[in-house]
Structures are given as structure tokens and as C-alpha cells.
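User: Let's play a game. I give you a shape written as C-alpha cells, and you guess the letters that built it. Ready? Here's round one.
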């Protein structure tokens, strides 16, 4: 796990505490009422039909617009300023941030390094930088007919891989009076909506039916993929500031909601993959990438099996699905929507048990659990999470961590990330930081994860709360 994220979050916490964001000028050229109407309509749809029935916009990789390439955004009067401009709504140095600090601008170049060459050799896929399996996640790999004149595959994961093909909005989005809603209608991808943002990031950071980094790729040398939306948004690093004018143009979204929607999106994407042909793998075994990596990869004398509620019914030695996100999602539901928590827990337990029976049983239980997740999301649409609920959730996560409930690394990692994000939201992470740092040291390196030390350090963080 990356440490950098804690330092970056520190900056942000400081920025937030010093009130710097609130001092940025407020622009009022966006017709706010229209924006609010759109949000209301969207919420009404979600409430009426559930999140799934609400038509999903196509992901940028599948949209119908030409992608023009980051060079078209890079002029110094557009997004290529050397320094942020405080007098405009957006900072205008996004291109600089992307080229200098954002790993996405180097995603294609990675395919030319020794690690990628070795992976491609082991997998027998020719050159990594020419292989579709790699290009689909490491650049904006739209088909040739959707590439503009300045588009280059070598640019990596560029602006339009996230914001959508700019063909229709490149001109109009800078016109006086153009609103965010106008841009969305012309194909801008709705990234301010945390559920859609999660869906997009996860399309590469977990995978989809079309593109997936399975166990063969991991064993050939690809890093294990892990994701948490709040931390990854900060770490990218963010090239936007959620200040007063941002809120006016795009609506307010708390860090806790971003985190929660990331968790919901992760569980939903994983369940969709389990139901897809990806799960079938290549031969005797299903795709191993869906299972908890460390349920196989740990020393035999480090006995980790225990009977947890979610995994009840699994015999010692059973191969476990990766439930790191689900465990935390259930704890979250227990704190903010208790009436939904039992269904999620039972659905998750049924999924684990079905994983020991047959693929068809597993798919059935995955679909049933996905419906529970949709119901939770619909119930929470528009809800504000109270500080008391978030504090209770943090206490519960720490107590469970201290009691040894998170012995699987994936769950341990997600629990840490959750507690850190909650502490930022509750604005007491400064006091907890030394203890959080020591706890972090116990999950930082997955190869040396010691669940006993992890539990002991979690106990110390919990004591720090009083
Ligand atoms: C499903 C999307 C996906 C696919 C397919 C994929 N990658 Fe990646 N790759 C990622 C993501 C996301 C990261 C960043 C992971 C992180 O740091 O959290 C990454 C990281 C890497 C890294 C950086 C490793 C490091 O230690 O910094 C290399 C090298 C790499 N990928 C090569 C490849 C090659 C070669 C292929 C094709 C065989 C490939 N990837 C296929 C998504 C993908
Ligand atoms: C990995 C995904 C990703 C990439 C790549 C990316 N962005 Fe963004 N960008 C985001 C997210 C997430 C937001 C926040 C949601 C929003 O406001 O749309 C954002 C917001 C913005 C904003 C809005 C700021 C505001 O105050 O309203 C601008 C402008 C922007 N990006 C420009 C760019 C440009 C230019 C590039 C390429 C140089 C780029 N982005 C590349 C994800 C990305
Ligand atoms: C088209 C695929 C794609 C999309 C979409 C995408 N990423 Fe990535 N992301 C990658 C790849 C590939 C890497 C690895 C690049 C590298 O290591 O240089 C990466 C790396 C990162 C990293 C660095 C991880 C690390 O461990 O150092 C962060 C943070 C990140 N992405 C956040 C996001 C966020 C937030 C979103 C959604 C707004 C997003 N990404 C969307 C492909 C993608
Ligand atoms: C079902 C058990 C199982 C699970 C779950 C599993 N692996 Fe493996 N893994 C194996 C086996 C078996 C090998 C082959 C070991 C060998 O060749 O000595 C292997 C090999 C590897 C290797 C190459 C090591 C080597 O010695 O060549 C890596 C890296 C790896 N796995 C990563 C992962 C990651 C990441 C995950 C989770 C996404 C994961 N594994 C999940 C069983 C598993």
C-alpha cells in the first residue's frame, strides 16, 4: 500500500482547516437552479426505480464521440497554465498537474519498461505496448475512427479517458454561460457524481468484463490491484478544488460520500464480474483473481482461519472470495442504514457458501447480493451522514480490527483506509496521527502482513479516541 496518500491527505486536511478553500472567489455565471433541477430529477429516478434502472451514461471508452487528445486541452489560456489561477472557476493548470504529477500521464510509457517487457514475454502476447490487453487500461484505447487529429496513444490515460470524448463540447464548454449540464448533454462524463466516478475509476482499477487483469497477469508480474475512491481521488492528485464555486456549479459531495460510493461501486463491480464469463477462467479452476490473494499466498504456520459471521459455513482451508470491500460495506450499513445491514450480511454469507457449491449457485447469489447493494444505494441517495454515525462506524471498525476480525489482508487494508478517511472527515486525525501511522506500518507491506500486530495497533488507535 502507498504511504504517499497519507502525506497528501495531510496537506488537504490542513488546507481544509485553514479555510483556504472557502476564500477562493465565487463565480455566479452558472444558472444554479437548472443544476439543482437535474440533481433532483436524478435522485427521483434513483428513488423510484433503484440505481440500476437509472440509465448509465456510457464510459468514456465506449462513448460515441471523437477523442481529440490532451494536446487540445494544453494551451496556456486553457488548461496549460504554469500556476493555478485564482480568478477563474477552474484552476487552468490541470494539464501541468497531469504531465508532472499524475501517474496516468505515464501509464503508456510503463508498457515500454523492463517489467512490462518481461510480463509480455511470460504471457506470450507480443509487445506490451501493442497488446490490446495492456493498452485498454494503460491508455485511452478508443478505436481509430474515434481518434482526432492530435490524438496519440502514447499520451497514456489522458483527459478524455476520464472526462469523455470532447468532440461535441470542446468549443462550447468555454462559452460564456455554458453550464455543467450543457456539457454533460454533449458527452462530458459526469465525474462529479461519486457513483459514476467510482464506476469509471474501477473500470481500470478493478476491471470489467471487457478488460481485466487476472491471476495470470499477476503471476507474470503485474501489481495486485486495489482501490478506495476517496484516497485515490486525493492521490491522483486531484487537479480540482472543491470550493464554494465548485459546489455552486456541481453540487456538494462530502468525502464520506465519495468513500461510501467507492465502496458500493467496488462491491457492485466485483459482483458483476463474478456473474460474467470472466469468472470461468481458463480450465479446471475459476479465475483465481477473484479470491483473496493471501488466502493462498501466506506461510502455512501462520494460521488465519476463524469463524467470522460473514464467512460462517466455510470450512477451514476453504478458498475465500475476496470480501475486503463487502466486509466494510456491511459495517457501514450497520452504522447508517441498519435495516439494510442484515440483508447484506445474509447475502454475503450466502455468496461465500455458494462459492463452495457451483458456479450457477454462485452467480445466483451474486445477483441477489447486487440487488441488496442497489437497495442500500437507493436508500442512501441524498442522505447526509451525521458525524455521530461516522464516529460510531469508526469505533466499530477499530473494535473489530482489534478483535482480529480482519485477518484477510484485503479487509485489513480497506479497514485502515476507511478509518483514515473517517478521521479526516471527523477532523481529529491530527490527534490520532501517531497511532494511525503505527497502525499503517502493520499493513503497509502485504508480503509481511502480521494480523496480530495489526490487531494490537488497531486497539491502540481505539484507545486514542477516548
Ligand atoms: C484492468 C486494467 C489493467 C490491465 C488489463 C493492465 N493493467 Fe497494468 N496497471 C493497471 C493499474 C490500475 C495499475 C496501477 C496499480 C496501482 O498502483 O494501484 C497498473 C500498473 C502497472 C504497472 C506498474 C507496476 C509498478 O510496480 O509500478 C505495470 C508495469 C503494468 N501495469 C503493466 C501492464 C501490462 C504489461 C499489461 C498487459 C499485460 C497491463 N499492465 C494490463 C491496470 C491494468
Ligand atoms: C484519471 C481521471 C482523470 C484524468 C486523466 C483527468 N481528469 Fe480532470 N477531473 C477528474 C475528476 C475525478 C474531477 C472531479 C470531478 C469533476 O469536477 O468533474 C476532474 C475535474 C476536472 C476539472 C474541473 C475543475 C472544476 O473546478 O470544475 C477540469 C477543468 C479538469 N478536470 C481538467 C482536466 C484536464 C485538462 C485533464 C488532462 C490534462 C484532466 N482533467 C485529466 C478526473 C480526471
Ligand atoms: C483508462 C484506465 C484508467 C482509468 C479510467 C483510471 N485509472 Fe488510475 N491508473 C491507471 C493506470 C494504468 C495506472 C498506473 C500508472 C502508473 O503507475 O504510472 C493508474 C494509477 C493511478 C493512481 C496511482 C496509484 C498508485 O498506487 O501509485 C491513482 C491514485 C489513480 N490511478 C487514481 C485514479 C482515479 C481516482 C480514477 C478515477 C477518477 C482513475 N485512476 C481512473 C489507469 C486508469
Ligand atoms: C487459489 C490460490 C491462489 C490465489 C487465491 C492466488 N494465487 Fe497467486 N499463485 C497461486 C499459485 C498456485 C501460484 C504458482 C506458484 C508457483 O509457480 O510456484 C501463484 C503464483 C503467483 C505469483 C507468482 C509467484 C511465483 O512464484 O512465480 C504471483 C505474483 C501471484 N500468484 C499473485 C497473486 C495475486 C496478486 C493474487 C490475488 C489477486 C493471487 N496471487 C491469488 C495460487 C493462488
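Assistant: Ready! My guess for every position:
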Amino acid at each position: 500500500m502507498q504511504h504517499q496518500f497519507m502525506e497528501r491527505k495531510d496537506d488537504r486536511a490542513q488546507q481544509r482547516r485553514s479555510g483556504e478553500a472557502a476564500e477562493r472567489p465565487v463565480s455566479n455565471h452558472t444558472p444554479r437552479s437548472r443544476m439543482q433541477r437535474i440533481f433532483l430529477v436524478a435522485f427521483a429516478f434513483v428513488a423510484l426505480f433503484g440505481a440500476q434502472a437509472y440509465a448509465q451514461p456510457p464510459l468514456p471508452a465506449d462513448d460515441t464521440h471523437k477523442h481529440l487528445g490532451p494536446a487540445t486541452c494544453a494551451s496556456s489560456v486553457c488548461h496549460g497554465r504554469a500556476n493555478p489561477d485564482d480568478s477563474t472557476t477552474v484552476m487552468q493548470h490541470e494539464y501541468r498537474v497531469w504531465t508532472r504529477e499524475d501517474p496516468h500521464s505515464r501509464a503508456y510509457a510503463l508498457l515500454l519498461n523492463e517489467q512490462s517487457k518481461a510480463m509480455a514475454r511470460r504471457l506470450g502476447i507480443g509487445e506490451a505496448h501493442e497488446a490490446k490487453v495492456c493498452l485498454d487500461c494503460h491508455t485511452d484505447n478508443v478505436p481509430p475512427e474515434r481518434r482526432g487529429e492530435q490524438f496519440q496513444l502514447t499520451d497514456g490515460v489522458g483527459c478524455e479517458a476520464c472526462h469523455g470524448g470532447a468532440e461535441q463540447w470542446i468549443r462550447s464548454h468555454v462559452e460564456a454561460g455554458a453550464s455543467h449540464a450543457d456539457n454533460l448533454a454533449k458527452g462530458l462524463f459526469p465525474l462529479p457524481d461519486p457513483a459514476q466516478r467510482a464506476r469509471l475509476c474501477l473500470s481500470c482499477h478493478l476491471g470489467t468484463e471487457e478488460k481485466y487483469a487476472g491471476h495470470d497477469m499477476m503471476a507474470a508480474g503485474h501489481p495486485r490491484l486495489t482501490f478506495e475512491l476517496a484516497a485515490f481521488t486525493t492521490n491522483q492528485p486531484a487537479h480540482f478544488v472543491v470550493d464554494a464555486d465548485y459546489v455552486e456549479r456541481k453540487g456538494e459531495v462530502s468525502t464520506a460520500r465519495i468513500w461510501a460510493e467507492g465502496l458500493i461501486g467496488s462491491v457492485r463491480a466485483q459482483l458483476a464480474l463474478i456473474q460474467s464469463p470472466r469468472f470461468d477462467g481458463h480450465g479446471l479452476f475459476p479465475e483465481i483473481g477473484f479470491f483473496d490473494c493471501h488466502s493462498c499466498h501466506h506461510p502455512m504456520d501462520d494460521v488465519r482461519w476463524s469463524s467470522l459471521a460473514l464467512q460462517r459455513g466455510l470450512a477451514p482451508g476453504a478458498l475465500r472470495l475476496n470480501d475486503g470491500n463487502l466486509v466494510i460495506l456491511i459495517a457501514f450499513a450497520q452504522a447508517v442504514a441498519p435495516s439494510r445491514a442484515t440483508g447484506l450480511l445474509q447475502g454475503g454469507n450466502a455468496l461465500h457458501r455458494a462459492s463452495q457449491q457451483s458456479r450457477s449457485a454462485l452467480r445466483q447469489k451474486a445477483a441477489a447480493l447486487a440487488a441488496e447493494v442497489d437497495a442500500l444505494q437507493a436508500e442512501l441517495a441524498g442522505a447526509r451522514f451525521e458525524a455521530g454515525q461516522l464516529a460510531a462506524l469508526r469505533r466499530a471498525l477499530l473494535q473489530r480490527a482489534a478483535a482480529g476480525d480482519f485477518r484477510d489482508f484485503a479487509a485489513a487494508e480497506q479497514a485502515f483506509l476507511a478509518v483514515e478517511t473517517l478521521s479526516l472527515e471527523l477532523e481529529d486525525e491530527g490527534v490520532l496521527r501517531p497511532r494511525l501511522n503505527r497502525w499503517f506500518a502493520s499493513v503497509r507491506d502485504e508480503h509481511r502482513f502480521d494480523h496480530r500486530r495489526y490487531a494490537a495497533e488497531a486497539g491502540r488507535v481505539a484507545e486514542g479516541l477516548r
